[in-house]
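# step 3/5: fold
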Amino acid sequence: MDLDISDKSIPVFAALDSKVRVHIIQLLSKQKMNVSEISKAIGLSSPITIMHLNKLADANIIRTEKKGNQRISSLQVDTIDITFPQQLYIPYENWNIELPIGQFTNFDVKPSCGLAGQTGFIGKVDNPSYFMDPERYKAGMIWFSKGYVEYQVPNYLKQDQELEMIELSMELSSEFPFSNNRWPSDITVSLDGKEIGTWTSPGDFSDVRGRYTPKWVYNDMNQYGMLKSFRLSKHGSYIDGQHSADTLVTDIDPTKNSWTLRFEVKSDAKNVGGCTIFGNKFGNYDQGIKGTFYFS
């Protein structure tokens, strides 16, 4: 489960604010249990136990199902990641862009792969030829098991301006046929042929539905990713503020009209677990690939 600091996340925070409910989560991490079993294990009456279970279910931390007269509860999430707002004061001018994720200009991908839009799949799934379908610009989610996709990022620098730093953000996850919440993948991001860093995605998530994922997407398909921040500065490259490579922003050619942004799962990576990129009206963040370019 991927959370941010917003009102939408409050039910989860509230559900975890209880020693009793934390104990219930620990119990359900080992096996499914009915109400009477949980009630006995935590030493509380069934009505009070049900009240705690309802709070956990409302937060999508557990799921419940009925089998005859029994109410069976099971744990629904493996991990909970919280993204805090990032405030970085930069005393430079800047320009911003947002690339639709279907606006890639080059690719070499292997199945499982595909593209999805607001009303359904774009072209045929697991056929890389459809990555050149004219409708690809409408994609809100693209995925591939290995290979790469590339985007052209416009360069608006003037001759008398100097590039100081680049910030990129996008929603990413691994790729597994349908989904697998524990499926690590090494996703490498590079700009202008220079690696910014490799992030290891922990899985291809479908434990809960994405906030913006269209209703037609099956529950056991990719639902959301994690919002990742990639930074190029004069001191090195960073992923979510952690040093990831020695590539400097000065390594980027400031005279080009555009730079090539690549997302890649290398065939010789330690974890070849694919890549899913989420865009507008998909996943948990209603955005494409955002970039902020600072200059002096």
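# step 4/5: annotate
The chain has four helices and 19 strands.
# step 5/5: archive (pending)
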